[in-house]
């Protein structure tokens, strides 16, 4: 089948989209990712890429006019590609995905990377708009995919889906650290001496991720260096540096930039403990399974995580770390102390077992199964292009997340 994936940014730095596109290409599908970003020549990971950027003059348009032009750009690209399946990544791509699928007669897969209606938007309009787009589009998708069981259950109830969406978690598919390569890459990058305990926060330092609490927690430990590995959000690095100075741990807090994805786990394995401290600020965080937790696991690093339902449940089931209140520096410090002093052969064995069980090689089958069902079901009837949002030509969807035919628009 010909699959067109829609993405509102570059695919190069989106690990989820890359692994899904690669998995479908390896399964024999012809995959092209349509990106709202510049695209360099050549294929990536076995799939094609095309830019749908609007002309430079479009940036001078009023914001909503520019957004409408972006939608049109995606739909025009889909009309040229003529896919069998349109795979829309996140709420931003649901509307162009729905319009393009109706225009071309393709099936529509909605891939929700987060609980979009559970994100604290800065503007009330966007909260309303995202909710309206999902309420209209999700029941009309042929399959819905998401990242955790909690989000899947919430989507099914919210949109009255006949089946629970398929859960395709962000499990690690990065190359394992080369055992022949000497350890110490992260220590050298951060300037941390051998023998010093190493605490790792992998990924961008950003608001509501417990980064400030983490710096204050490290200040309560007698030993230990904290490394933020990744390009942080604007202003966050400066704020963390201020807190480190105020707490007297400037020499023990290190902010370093991103590293090449294919070498990431070589750096990760140097850590004594990996941290993920999403704060309980929104429903999306409560139901999230952060990528970094699976990356720590793949590198054999125990974890300290927020005591939030999904991620805490994962850690408890596999016995691979400690759960702490993400806003309390004393509690986080206690969790870190236990992690730094609680290493054992049993813990390392549990980490290996969890990494074997929670592997992308197994998880990818949940995604390819949806496309397998598409391939064995009845063909999609053509729709009338002039009525892209018509409720006519309803069909029984296949795959996880199937909608109720003729579901309500509002």
Describe this structure in words.
It is globular and about 65 Å long. The model is unreliable at 378-410 (pLDDT under 50). It has helices at 15-26, 63-81, 94-104, 124-137, 149-158, 185-190, 211-219, 236-247, 264-268, 283-286, 291-298, 309-318, 329-341, 345-357, 360-376; strands at residues 2-7, 30-35, 48-51, 85-89, 107-112, 143-146, 166-167, 198-202, 225-229, 253-256, 273-276, 303-306, 321-324. It is of the alpha/beta class. It folds into two domains: 2-171 and 361-376, Rossmann fold, CATH 3.40.50; 185-358, Glycogen Phosphorylase B (Rossmann fold), CATH 3.40.50.2000. The strands form two sheets. A seven-stranded parallel beta sheet has the order 3-2-1-4-5-6-7, with helices on both faces. A six-stranded parallel beta sheet has the order 10-9-8-11-12-13, sandwiched between helices. The protein starts with a strand and ends in a 34-residue tail after the last helix.
Summarize the structure.
By secondary structure, the protein is of the alpha/beta class.
Q: Keywords for this structure?
A:
40% helix, seven-stranded parallel beta sheet, Rossmann fold, alpha/beta, 15 helices, 410 residues, six-stranded parallel beta sheet
Number of discrete helical segments: 15
H-E string? EHEEHEHEHEHEHEHEHEHEHHEHEHHH
How many runs of DSSP E, i.e. beta strands?
13
Poorly predicted tracts of residues: 378-410
The CATH superfamily of the largest domain is Glycogen Phosphorylase B
Instruction: Quickly give the CATH architecture of the largest domain.
Output: 3-Layer(aba) Sandwich
CATH structural class of the largest domain:
Alpha Beta
Share of residues in helices: 25-40%
The share of residues in extended strands comes to 5-15%
Rg of Cα set: 22 Å
* Cα separation of the termini: 32 Å
Biggest beta-sheet profile: 7 strands, parallel
Strand order of the largest sheet: 3-2-1-4-5-6-7
The CATH topology label of the largest domain is: Rossmann fold
Q: How would you classify the helix and strand content by structural class?
A: alpha/beta
| Number of separate structural domains | 2
* Whole-number mean pLDDT: 89
Coarse shape: globular
């Amino acid at each position: 089948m010909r699959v067109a994936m829609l993405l509102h940014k570059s695919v190069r730095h989106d690990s989820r989209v890359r692994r899904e596109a690669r998995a479908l290409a390896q399964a024999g599908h012809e995959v092209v990712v349509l990106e709202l970003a510049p695209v360099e020549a050549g294929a990536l990971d076995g799939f094609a890429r095309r830019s749908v950027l609007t002309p430079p003059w479009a940036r001078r348009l009023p914001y909503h006019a520019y957004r409408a032009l972006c939608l049109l750009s995606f739909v025009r690209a889909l009309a040229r590609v003529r896919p069998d399946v349109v795979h829309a990544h996140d709420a931003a791509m649901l509307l162009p995905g729905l319009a393009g699928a109706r225009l071309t007669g393709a099936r529509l897969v909605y891939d929700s990377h987060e609980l979009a209606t559970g994100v604290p938007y800065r503007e009330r309009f966007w909260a309303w708009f995202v909710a309206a787009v999902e309420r209209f589009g999700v029941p009309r998708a042929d399959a819905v995919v998401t990242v955790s069981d909690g989000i899947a259950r919430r989507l099914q109830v919210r949109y009255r889906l006949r089946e629970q969406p398929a859960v395709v978690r962000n499990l690690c598919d990065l190359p394992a650290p080369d055992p022949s390569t000497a350890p110490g890459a992260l220590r050298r990058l951060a300037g941390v001496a051998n023998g010093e305990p190493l605490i790792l926060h992998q990924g961008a330092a950003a608001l509501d991720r417990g980064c400030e609490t983490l710096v204050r927690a490290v200040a309560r430990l007698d030993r230990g260096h904290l490394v933020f590995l990744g390009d942080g959000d604007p202003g966050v690095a400066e704020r963390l540096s201020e807190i480190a100075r105020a707490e007297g741990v400037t020499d023990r807090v290190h902010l370093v930039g991103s590293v090449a994805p294919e070498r990431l786990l070589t750096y990760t394995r140097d850590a004594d403990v990996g941290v993920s401290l999403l704060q309980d600020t929104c429903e999306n965080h409560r139901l999230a399974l952060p990528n970094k937790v699976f990356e720590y696991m793949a590198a054999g690093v125990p974890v300290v995580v927020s005591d939030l339902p999904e991620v805490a449940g994962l850690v408890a089931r596999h016995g691979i770390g400690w759960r702490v209140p993400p806003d309390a520096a004393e509690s986080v410090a206690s969790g870190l102390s236990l992690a730094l002093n609680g290493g054992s052969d049993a813990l390392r064995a549990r980490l290996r077992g969890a990494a074997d069980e929670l592997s992308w090689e197994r998880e990818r089958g949940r995604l390819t199964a949806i496309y397998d069902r598409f391939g064995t079901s009845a063909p999609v009837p053509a729709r009338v292009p002039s009525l892209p949002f018509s409720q006519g030509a309803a069909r029984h969807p296949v795959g996880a997340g199937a909608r109720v035919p003729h579901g309500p628009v509002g």
